Amino acid sequence: MRKKIVERYSQALATSRQLYERAQKVFPSGVTHDGRYLRPFPPYIVRAKGAHKWDVDGREYVDYWVGHGSLLLGHNRPEVEAAVQEQLSRGTHYGASHEREVEWGEMVVQLIPSAERVKFTSSGTEATLMAIRLARAYTGKRKIVKFEGHFHGWHDQVVEGVMPPYEVPVSPGLLPEVVNSTLLCPPNDSRTLRRILEEDPDVACVIIEPTGASFGTIPTKGEFLRELRQITSEHQVVLIFDEVITGFRCSPGGAQGYYQVLPDLTTLAKILAGGLPGGAVAGKREIMELLEFKEDREWNRYRKMAHPGTYNANPLSATAGVTTLRIIAPGEENKQADKIAQHLREELNRVIAKHDLPWRVYGDFSGFHFLFHYEEAGSTPFDPENFHYDYRKLKGGVDPQFFHAFRCAMLLNGVDIPNTPMTSSAHTLADVDRTATAFDQAITLLKEDGWIEG
Ligand SMILES: Cc1ncc(COP(=O)(O)O)c(C=O)c1O
Q1: Domains in the chain: ranges and CATH
Q2: Is the distance from CB of 278 to CB of 121 less than 8 angstroms?
Q3: 449 C-beta neighbours (distance < 10 Å), count
Q4: Alpha carbon distance 208, 206 (integer Å)
Q5: N or C: which end of the chain has fewer CB within 10 A?
Q6: Does ligand 1 lie within 6 Å of residue 123's CB atom?
Q7: Is 124 a pocket residue for ligand 1 (Cβ < 6 Å)?
Q8: Cβ atoms within 10 Å, residue 79
Q9: What is the pTM of this model?
Q10: Is the distance from the beta carbon of residue 269 to the nearest atom of ligand 1 less than 6 Å?
Q11: What are 122-138's pLDDT values in tens digits?
């Protein structure tokens, strides 16, 4: 038992298996991003277009990684591809200011409602690092509050409280004083947040993924964001929306544009740079001012926040970014991706009902999340949007071995599902049908292999 999927997978993706053998000799566990780790080995991809990608054995997949969420328009949207190729012929790095970065910054200010000033970084992790440091410099306070389950990258200050058990950071090698300066609050719990801020006068900022942990795996709604805005304002604490995923995805103006709740600072990445590396912090002029040079040597030496970074606003990322954001600006691409995700959630739940499994697929906007252990909810109706569910089970509650088997079974049936799956505007109803059929067949395989009863 429990071998069939692995055997079939190893045969069908034989060239990927060979590549993984080489990869294990150079990379820890053979992978270059923890999220791509898969037992017995991950698929190796050679080409992608629209909503699809192809592996080294010529197998085609419907892709729900969409570049870790960076490709709202799908792979190689012709306008983006052409613009990047044209820029490539004119140089990849001038070590100088250039027009594209100005256009890119202007697009961010135009689209993100709270953005008065912008500064580009090379990743989302760098963006949250910058936003938190700005908040400290601005308030003169030391600590941050983050919500359990929320992910903000991998620097020291934010690896706390990402996965249950939340008391244990997802990484060793941290200084205890850094760990102790990140205060954790249960998601959607305004009472506890108020208590933390009342008891501790040393909090510089509160950071949140505005649609909830990992793009709504533990959902948050506008009502909580409005409360959060009020509470942080009352306590003069900087409010940071980490819109690395939600920015330009929930709407052209991100989650803040959708919910009309404005933070003090916003972190951006992924879609921002149109599938190339890039990030940014945007926000209030009076906070972003800390990044300015002034005609004052004392200020420049002691008060200004330093910010170098070789690849900040590099011409290729700026070109992919500005071309992508211009296409997204009217909002049609967001609506298309959302519509497809909604169909997908409905179809996948139909398959679950057909198999009479205690599972659910839920989500909002262009996201969908699998819940594989709904029975633990007892008699409470499933309604994650209204939090009638133990949030500790919504993220990180699935047995990793089962999830690997599930992913392999889906890959065998032509669909690639990551931890945080999303649609793009390139996904079609035909992709939804293909995915539902693959899901049906994957469930049958999982039953045959003894992973689920039936
Ligand atoms: C909400 C959020 N913040 C920050 C990050 C870190 O971004 P990056 O992977 O570009 O460092 C991610 C990455 O997935 C993210 O989802």
Answers
A1: 4-74+332-448 (3.90.1150.10), 78-328 (3.40.640.10)
A2: yes
A3: 19
A4: 7
A5: N
A6: yes
A7: yes
A8: 13
A9: 0.97
A10: yes
A11: 999 999 999 999 999 99
